[in-house]
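pasting for the record
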Amino acid sequence: MGENVLPLRLQAKIAQKGYTSMALFSVMAAGRVELEARAVRSFLLDPAATSLTPDQVDLVEITTAKLVAAWMEAKQRFEEHNKLNSASRASNLPMIIPKALLVSLRGRFEALHGRISDKVYPCAHMVEVRIEEVEEGTLSATPLEEVICVELGQDTFSSDSVSIHGVRFRKAPKAIAAPKNTEELRTRFKTLAMAFVLSSFKHTSTLWLRTVSMEAFAEYVEYLLSEHVASYQLDQDELSLKATWSTALGYDLAMRKRMVRSITYPPHLDFAAAMKQAMQDPVVRERRFITPTALITAATAASGHRGKRLSPADTFVPDRGNKKPKGKQGQG
């Protein structure tokens, strides 16, 4: 509690009573009088006890004063924390993390993985969002258009921060284009993976984060680019079902949303297990990948482009300019 360090024995007694966080400790009593009564009743800090020597009485009084000071500090910090969280949620902006912490996190990451280019390393806003989501238990699946590296983040900020109630929050950079090819996709996921790994450095006690790794994301990307997704092709009833790039990207986001649900809600899986479950979920695959692929292929064939594969960035738009074939006028 800052300068108000409590004796270890008293800290242990407080923890044994169940006050194991700043939030709980700050509401241990409604006021100072109640706290001092609690000190006598629960922690045996009674200066009026007849068995105490004068020196022991002084020690009890000092310890009680430290307890009161620590409680007041915790109460003030908790109230300020709530105010900041409210402002953060209202503005939909994460609180700015001290630069020293950002530098420390990057140093730790590069000590494990080598020097990382700003073209890949996540911008400060991404790191702050991920860390705050872990703290608040509000994990989300970040669209790839919002996965932004340091270099692009510097180019897309309209201004670095904004002040709300005297507290500075970092503005989000403008969204960028979705990845257009496999190289851009790999890079984008490296950036996203780093943001998760950095948050695991900050929140070492968060169980689901312990299986987050660059390798887990790399395996996921290989699945996205495999014959199961981006390179998917199936010849069926004179039609060649081929996945479009945009369908593959849509399926990716659906899988990551499924992963988030498995982490946030029961069964509360860890990261690696949730990712594996999302990749194997037949409902998500059918609704978000197989069906869209079949519909796009059928519609493309009907519009006169049978067997022609759409370009990576394409989504299906019916070709209104095609001439109808001679013969009966059917419905397209």
